[in-house]
Amino acid sequence: MKNLVSIFAGHDANITFYNAKTNKYYSIEIERLVRKRYFRLHVDNSPEYQKDILEQCRDIAEESWGIKNDYEAVLISSDGFVQVDTKEIFNTEKVVTVARHHETHAAAAFYMSPFKEALICSYDGGGDDGHFNVYAANSEGFRLLERVDSDFGGGYLLCGSMIREVAEKSRHQLALSGKLMGLCGYGQAYDGMVDAFQQFFFSRDYKQLAQRAELPLKNQDSPWKNPMDNWVFEGQEGYNIAATAQAGFEKAFFSVLDEYDPHMPLILTGGCALNVLVNEQVKERYDRPIYVPPQPHDGGLSLGHMFLYKKPTERVDVTYAGLPILDRDKLALGGKRVNKKEIAQLIKDGKIVGLVYGDSEVGPRALGNRSIVCDPNITDMKDILNSKVKFREWYRPFAPFCKKEDAHKYFESRDFENLEYMGYAPMVKKEYREKLPAITHVDGTARLQTVTEETHPDFYELLTEFGKLSETNVLLNTSFNIRGMPILSSIEDALYVLNNTEMDYVVIEDYLFGKE
User: Is the pLDDT of residue 80 over 90?
Assistant: First the structure.
């Protein structure tokens, strides 16, 4: 077996490399390379630019991960083609496609999970094999059980487009869903409309939703023409519509899942598996093992396609196998060597610190290698971060992280498994909500990340030192980027954020940088 490379060129474009010599996998989310969120490689770009980007990825793989340009095959995703001859870029004799959209989602999640067999729900805004597929998976492969006629991903996005606070200032329609999920905690669902929204996720008929819910929706015949122009609700009415949409989404999802064996291990994947509120409901509703991967969205498709070409013989972990620091040589520019005790003291003193370590995490959520951290005990820290560092909407929550063994002290959950990727939203215990205001959402939830010494030794050591200074050993973690930009991948960008926001320090590989 020689090296492999797998390409998905649709939105959230990504490329995965397999090093045959070391048996390791690496994934590049191309948006971080080109500094454009939700980047789509094909269609939007000339063949010349596509070739240039793929050549950059090829060179990164060789220089950073030792993967020589000698490949058994180039895999091209079935609904994420490229408009270049990849044999001109990669030294290979074979260019193949072996699977379709949702099967690759399922494979990416299954082979990263701890399960030998599982029920898999893959649901999103659609691929070339539907919008919601249910699989049974085991060592023999994947068996399609059902293809549900629906559009949970697109439907949820359109629900977000109805609300001014979600849609008005958004730069890309794919940003609407995450914002809707954050806003719905401020509302109360209109009980009489929930069924209409539930039906919408199956019917995909926007005009019918307006009629059934008696809502004065705009652009009823063409809501996809420009979703950011659909909004008609704002203020508390908008918040209530958000809550109603979430309630309908949950009811629709469980109407499918409840038809299956409630005891079989369950994997949730596809872009809709980023809905932490549904995931938490699943965890509370069933007494069963559950797994949500760090990159359930289309950013994991090239990895899943590779798994279906070459089945892994053991569990694969690519959590921190993303894009490396692209300009590591800039560490020579300066910076003071610090230890975790000193970083913890800065945080305890109320400082906002950006952290950059090693290769980046995969998936849309920062998990410690490209993170901004601070003390969540400080009352106005959420507002400071939103308005003066992240430059984003006031209602969007921030995530906590803590040691896995401490999680039960601060949060409520049926169990504390699979919380290392911020895939769920457990409740903050009532006695800690006032003590941890910056990470406690208005509905009492928090998108928790747990860490162990094995999963993230730097975060774990930082918590160990912070725990000596604070009564609550929980820290706030948000992605190291600013509004409209992807998670950063260079020292240059990290220092730009430091010097152009109210962030106080950046720590890069334990070197401390202050403002210029």
Answer: no
